[in-house]
Design brief:
Blueprint (H helix, E strand, L loop, with lengths): L7 H12 L6 H8 L3 H15 L4 E6 L3 E6 L2 H7 L9 H14 L4 E2 H8 L3 H16 L7 E4 L2 E4 L3 H14 L18 H17 L6 H19 L15 H18 L5 H14 L12 H4 L2 H18 L7 H14 L12 H7 L1 H8 L1 H9 L5 H20 L6 E7 L3 H15 L3 E8 L13 E4 L12 E4 L6 H19 L7 H6 L2 E6 L4 H14 L5 H13 L7 E7 L7 E13 L2 E10 L7 H9 L6 H4 L5 H9 L1
Parallel strand pairs: 6-7, 6-8, 8-9, 10-12, 11-13
Antiparallel strand pairs: 1-2, 3-5, 4-5, 12-13
């Protein structure tokens, strides 16, 4: 069968659109691939030319985006596979990892260069990338090098962990196949059998698992089978305790079925490994847990850690989540899962997009890090932080719901008849009832007789002025409430939520910038040097200790603050004697986490001003900023004028 004549980026774009069940916008795709929307449009044209002969097409609709259609999806799925492709560093790193996991002999680096058609320098860079992914991170497998030969340590458990990650990271939830790579290691028929069989046994013993844990379990069983039959069993170890009776019964049931169907046998070490995966992923039935029963489901470390975290959130950001029982139990389940021997969190696409949509939630989540070190013995990674941030976002929504006094007093001024105004009210409340309290439907010509003193927001269907009251905002909307109106209202409400989260005594952005430490048109390019240079402003002026620098460096290594072009905003909540900014403008833009930046702002906060962080994040990472103009600014005056306007 022929292959599609597409670049790797176009193949990835096709894969991304294939995975969508609804329209996805060009902007979203552009952000995930770090290209412009124009590039996405051009790539879609090229893809459509290639897939048109096979009765497939990427549909395009204004204001909605793109949607994939194919009369026979399997044809395009096979055409878009790449068996051995070394277009990118990621491709090469994955290939190296597979070769190192599956070989019993050391690999000669010069043979690898010929095999992969790369230079010696390129291979060295790829090996460094591999070390970052699997040697310095979980599963921390050793990469041994003797002269010109390299090999993974002979640790079967770690080799299988690498293989599991390689397959899992590329898993396509919409098909059983794989879009980018044709792996010959796993037999598709065996994997299909395992995927059909395992849920039956889990269900028999009433074990529920999340998708990430279940997918990883299925892959681990397939990997186990292939490694055992190829003569690579797990080494002999003493049996482990099995307190989860249901998980133990399900494990034995699954393995017994596999042995009967696949005509092989698995040692108790293999069964113990599968038991740990099933027990780790065994979800408690949260709906049935009551507060009086918490100690039956969660251990003392989990309970104490959750309480300490909620107290810290209340102390630092003055947010009280303690009364939200549903959130509390969900948080306990998350913390308990973190402590299991094998915990799998699904990657959320481009983490920059997730972090940008969870700006304030990520900061609340990051408060957990010191407690994680104290209670768990390590800092949690970016993916784990993002899942905690999602949990926090749900808690914030409940907080708005249970505090109706914080709703914005709203008047709808409509020039249409009452039935239209009433329908408009219902539509607005259908989307924003948690945040808006519509107190009146007002005809436009009755505005002069209405008292707007206690009104926060006016939604008007006309352009004419409604009131001069300084405390009342006015947003013009259509009487149909268009998708654009929903986005406008959503952005407005988000901004007001930031204001509500912040202290009323905080220093204005203008004052913070005016009195910041300034360094203009610097010739700096090394990330560490820039961070150290800016942190010295605060340390040398005795505002913070060296702990401040350590915290920023750790944050950058775990979950970088560089989530978009324009401004990089570095910060730490390590207590400062006063709230202060340091600003560096670079003579030439540099790349930081794939984004080009010229302006770098670092912040230190007095404990009383911690909530200022939310406002600064909302300002510096606002999608409405003119990034092209921002990237040209080099002086204090230019930047002050930009934000003043």
């Amino acid at each position: 069968m022929n292959k599609l004549n597409l670049t790797l980026r176009q193949r990835k774009l096709l894969h991304m659109i294939q995975e969508q069940t609804t329209y996805i916008t060009g902007n979203e795709l552009a952000q995930q691939l770090n290209v412009s929307p124009r590039t996405i449009r051009n790539d879609v044209v090229a893809i459509n030319k290639n897939i048109f002969p096979y009765e497939a097409q990427i549909l395009s609709e204004r204001s909605k985006g793109y949607l994939y259609y194919a009369k026979n999806p399997d044809i395009i799925q096979k055409l878009n596979q790449i068996d051995t492709a070394f277009f990118t560093k990621e491709d090469r790193m994955r290939y190296l990892a597979f070769r190192l996991c599956l070989t019993d002999e050391a690999l000669n680096i010069y043979d690898l260069e010929d095999e992969m058609f790369v230079s010696h320098t390129t291979l060295e860079h790829d090996l460094h990338y591999l070390k970052m992914r699997y040697v310095l991170s979980e599963p921390n497998i050793k990469l041994e090098q003797k002269k010109d030969n390299i090999s993974f340590e002979k640790n079967e458990k770690k080799r299988r962990a690498v293989l599991n990650q390689l397959f899992y990271e590329d898993w396509n939830y919409n098909t059983s196949g794989n879009t980018y790579y044709g792996y010959n290691f796993l037999n598709k028929d065996i994997l299909d059998y395992i995927m059909d069989e395992v849920p039956l046994h889990l269900s028999r013993y009433k074990i529920a698992m999340e998708d990430p844990s279940l997918v990883s379990l299925n892959l681990s069983i397939a990997i186990m089978y292939h490694r055992v039959v190829s003569g690579h069993p797990l080494p002999s170890t003493p049996p482990i305790p099995k307190p989860d009776t249901q998980a133990n019964l399900a494990t034995n049931s699954i393995v017994d079925a596999l042995e009967g169907q696949l005509h092989c046998s698995f040692s108790h070490e293999e069964r113990d490994e599968l038991y740990q995966r099933i027990a780790s992923g065994h979800l408690p039935d949260i709906a049935k847990i009551t507060f009086s029963e918490l100690s039956q489901y969660f251990g003392p470390i989990t309970l104490n850690l959750a309480d300490a975290y909620l107290e810290k959130i209340k102390k630092v950001f003055n947010l009280d989540f303690i009364g939200d029982r549903d959130f509390y139990i969900t948080l306990l389940a998350y913390l308990q899962y973190l402590q299991t021997p094998i915990h799998i969190f699904n990657k959320q696409g481009n983490p920059n997009i997730a972090k940008k949509n969870l700006l304030k939630e990520m900061e609340i989540a990051y408060l957990f890090q010191d407690l994680a070190l104290e209670y768990l013995g390590y800092y949690i990674n970016q993916t784990e932080l993002l899942y905690l941030a999602h949990c926090i976002s749900g808690a914030l929504e409940f907080l708005y719901e249970t505090h109706p006094e914080s709703k914005l007093k709203t008047v709808i001024c409509c020039h249409m008849n009452l039935s239209t105004a009433w329908a408009l009210k219902r539509k607005v409340l259908g989307a924003f009832d948690k945040y808006l309290d519509i107190v009146s439907l007002l005809p436009i010509n009755a505005k002069s007789a209405y008292d707007f003193n206690n009104i926060d927001l006016i939604l008007s269907t006309v352009r004419k002025p409604i009131t001069n009251h300084s405390g009342t905002d006015i947003i013009q909307i259509s009487h149909f409430l268009t998708p654009r109106d929903y986005l406008t209202l959503s952005a407005y409400i988000q901004e007001k939520q930031i204001v509500q989260l912040c202290s009323s005594k905080e220093t204005s952005l203008k004052d913070l910038l005016e009195h910041a430490f300034w360094h203009e048109k610097e010739l700096l390019s090394d990330h560490f040097s820039i961070i150290e240079y800016m942190a010295s402003d605060f340390i040398q002026n005795h505002l913070v200790t060296s702990q401040y620098l350590s915290d920023i460096l750790r944050r950058e290594s775990i979950a970088t603050c560089a989530i978009g072009p324009g401004i990089l905003f570095l910060h730490s909540l390590v207590p400062s004697k006063e709230t202060k900014l340091s600003v560096v403008t670079l003579d030439h833009r540099i790349v930081w986490n794939s984004h080009k930046v010229r302006i770098i702002i670092m912040a230190a906060f007095h404990p009383d001003d911690a909530t200022s962080l939310f406002r600064l994040l909302h300002t510096f990472y606002d999608d409405s900023l003119n990034i092209e103009k921002l990237q040209m600014l080099k002086t204090k005056k230019e930047i002050l004028d930009f934000f003043d306007n």
